[in-house]
Design goal:
With 117 residues, the protein is mainly alpha-helical. The protein has helices at residues 4-7, 19-31, 33-42, 45-69, 74-89, and strands spanning 102-103, 109-110. It has one domain. The protein is built from 5 helices and 2 strands. A two-stranded antiparallel ribbon has the order 1-2. A hairpin with a 5-residue loop joins β1 (102-103) and β2 (109-110). The protein is globular. The termini are far apart.
Length: 117
């Protein structure tokens, strides 16, 4: 009998991969193994990780400038924006904590926590 770990595709990060894309691959393999395996088997794992990074950069910039308009200094706004968006696309919650993620119109997995009341 094989363990679930042995069924998980190996982590293969191509040379030249951007650090945030590599982080996504590592995180997904460890914390979202079903999603990682599905993307791997469909041949879209690296493409999806790159798309997650691109979405992160796009939204990060929007949030960064919105925070500056709200009165935050640029370095603080940058850090706040980066953290918020990376958790939305790169550092997704575990499959145990959030079994089903939302997807964007383009099919990208995303996590949007419920706002605190």
């Amino acid at each position: 009998m094989s363990s679930p770990e042995s069924l998980l595709p190996e982590l293969n990060i191509p040379q030249g991969t951007l650090p945030d894309v590599a982080d996504a691959l590592r995180h997904w393999r460890e914390h979202r193994p079903k999603m990682y395996t599905e993307l791997y088997q469909s041949g879209t794992l690296l493409e999806t990780a790159n798309a997650a990074f691109e979405a992160t950069v796009d939204e990060e910039e929007q949030i960064h400038f919105a925070l500056i308009r709200q009165g935050y200094d640029s370095p603080t706004a940058f850090i706040m924006a980066k953290q918020a968006v990376r958790e939305r696309y790169i550092y997704l919650p575990t499959e145990e904590d959030v079994p089903e993620l939302m997807t964007t119109e383009t099919g990208l997995y995303t996590y949007q926590p419920e706002p605190d009341d």
